[in-house]
Amino acid sequence: MVTALVLFPGLTEIAIAQDAAYLSAREAVQKGQLNKVEQLYPQLKQHELAPYVESWMLKPQLSTDSPDIRAFLKKYEGERPAEILRADWIRAQAKQGNWVLVAQQGPQMLQPEPDVQCYSLLPRVNNGDSAAKDQARAIWATSVDTPEACQMLFDAMWANGELKASDGWLRARRQVAMNKPAQARLTLSVMRVNANDAAGGLDAVLGRPVIFLERVGTPNDDTQKELVTLALVRMARNEPTTAVSALKRYGGHLDKTQQEYVWGIIGWQLGIQQSPDALNAVKMSGTALLPDDAMAWRIRVALRAQDWSLVRKDIEAMPEPMLSSPEWVYWLGRAYKAQGRDSAAEEQFQKIAGQSNFYGVLAAEELGGRAKVPAQAKPATPDEIRAVEKQPGIRRALAMYRLDLRPEGVKEWSWALRGMNDRQLLAAAEIAQRNQIIDRSISAADRTKEEHNYKLRFPTPYADKIMPHSDRQNLDKAWVYGLMRQESRFVTNAKSNVGAAGLMQVMPATGKWVANKIGVKLGPGDLHNPDTNVMLGTTYMRLVLESLDNHPVLASAAYNAGPGRARKWRDVKPLEGAIYAETIPFSETRDYVKKVMSNAVFYQTVMTGNTPSLKIMLGTIAPKSGQSDGMPELP
After folding, report:
1. E strand or H helix at 576, and its extent?
2. Percent of the chain scored above 70 by pLDDT?
3. d(CA 198, CA 212)
4. What is the pLDDT of residue 218?
5. 3-state SS string over 321-381?
6. What is the C-alpha to C-alpha distance for residues 266 and 585, in angstroms, rounded to an integer?
7. Is the pLDDT of residue 4 over 90?
8. Mean pLDDT taken over the chain
9. The whole model's pTM is what?
10. pLDDT value at 442 more than 50
11. Does residue 89 sit in helix, strand or coil?
12. Coil/strand/helix, residue 161
């Protein structure tokens, strides 16, 4: 508990001992040693995390209709420990077939995970509950993965006649298009599709589509037509160019909607590859109702070709809620503007102008203004801060951070913020900042609706390290802070699932390469040292910026995905920076670049009082060239 003594010097010896007991109890639960948890509980009755310990001790009763569990749920109603225990109780009772209890407890879940939601809906669907049927159909129509609980629900819906064959084929198509063949197999099993024929059955359709198509030849019934469609979709997902030839050869006997669906998946995948053939495939897809990703890429392909008529047509055909998302509101406005429909364009831009996101900023500029930082709200008062500090969820989250249980602390913090008004959120942001939990401070400040504090949303910690290194590398400080906010939210010990570390999420290979280039020797753990991390990160930012036309959009993409990819994603002709950002093939990098650039706008405004033009910052991306810059292609 040395960490607790250093970071939380106000802790008493008793509190430190209680923290140690909690960690021991947590470890015991993970090992299934519940008797040890019971032995430790007397020390933990007054600990902030006592509810979790109490819930662990109730685990042996999950298979019963336990009055102790009911008492616990009543005692902690609305809090995260109760939500977790109720979910585990529902799972245990569903597996025992106690559907009366499941039906009773399910509606009391506040944020059910998919399996719990399906367990909860099953008895209601079987009892003819129309609202439950609607919810179940929505899961069928939108989900891709199928937990065992949802498979049970879908089997019941099929048996009850709530699902038709057309529903099943559409779901299977979507799953194959999303590269989930195993899930498509489960969907077809719900439908009782028997495809064990001479053409190889589902194994061939999903695993060897070329062989299946060669064997089946001309489909002779509706089921075979659907299986041919699935085989073509599978090919389109993995080998879109080959799928074009296959569709022309085998697709003649398919319905128009089936052919258009395959063309839509081909256009999606060719669009990601930035193939010049993508636009024709997109046009061939008509108005097929595709997976959301495919529909988005149909528009991105049209954007890259600057075919504004197609952009407008495809966005207008989008279903909700896609149609209302800021990016498509903005691009529909741009399409209207390109076609001379200025009033319609202005109506679109006004819907999102003022939002603190990439497209909200761009929309404000299309209306002749700039992004605005709202008047700063009055600081949270001491009474407001004390009131929020007393909330059990906030106390539990802070305790988890104190114990270096960050992932659990994040979940507890997010749960505690549910339902808070603006004043409470601002107080929570202040509390997190005082406890040096900058990422949680940002998360609270980001949620306010009317009263805002952009200094909490866009904080400037570690200025003594970041400012000198930014100056040394001649980098725009707002851009550096905007990138760091997106990379780590200023968590010094942040580590990604691919190994990126520290404030600037420097990959080990990148750090080593940069260190060698500037003559610095790295030791173990140096990437987590804020000063070293910022030195390496800002140096790398400068190197990629210089190698990519000194363009911050290209450099931001390069920082996330590598300079080779950022260069490859350019077009053969000059490309508007916003279109380049929107058509980045990697969804993570696409989102990243947009957020880094809009962050930079708000940081510049908060730091200097002057709001830059995002459109000018995005500029124009120069065409591709064969020039090499010597930068390594890093993970």
Report:
1. strand 575-576
2. 96
3. 9
4. 87
5. CHHHCHHHHHHHHHHHHHCCCHHHHHHHHHHHCCCCCHHHHHHHHHCCCCCCCCCECCCCC
6. 15
7. no
8. 94
9. 0.94
10. yes
11. helix
12. coil
Residue 166 one-letter amino acid? S
CA distance 468 to 46: 46
Q: What is the residue extent of each domain of the chain? A: 2-136, 382-450, 463-621
Q: What letter represents residue 555's amino acid?
A: A
Residues in the chain: 635
What pLDDT, on a 0 to 100 scale, did the predictor assign at position 1?
A: 41
What pLDDT sits at residue 5? Answer: 38
Write the CA distances from 155 to 102, 146, 347, 366, integer angstroms: 18, 12, 46, 51
Cβ atoms of 400 and 412 closer than 8 Å: yes
Relative to beta strand 620-621, strand 575-576 is antiparallel
Q: Burial of 610 by CB count in 10 Å (0-12 exposed, 13-18 middle, 19+ buried)?
A: exposed
According to DSSP, residue 108 is labeled G
Domain 382-450 has CATH 1.10.1240: yes
Q: Is the pLDDT of residue 28 over 80?
A: yes
Would you say residue 630 has pLDDT above 60? no
Q: Which two tokens stand for residue 231?
A: 């085989």
CATH of 463-621, one of 3.30.1390.20, 2.60.40.420, 1.10.579.10, 1.10.530.10: 1.10.530.10
Helix (H) or strand (E) holding 620: strand 620-621
Question: Do the beta carbons of residue 140 and residue 167 sit within 8 Å?
Answer: yes
Q: How far apart are CA 568 and CA 557, in angstroms?
A: 11
Q: Among candidates 79, 78, 59, which has minimal Cα distance to 69? A: 59
Nearest 5 degrees, angle CA 331-CA 335-CA 338?
Answer: 135
Give domain 2-136's CATH architecture.
Answer: Alpha Horseshoe (1.25)
Q: Is the pLDDT at 323 greater than 60, yes or no?
A: yes
Query: What local confidence, expressed as pLDDT, does residue 7 receive?
Result: 47
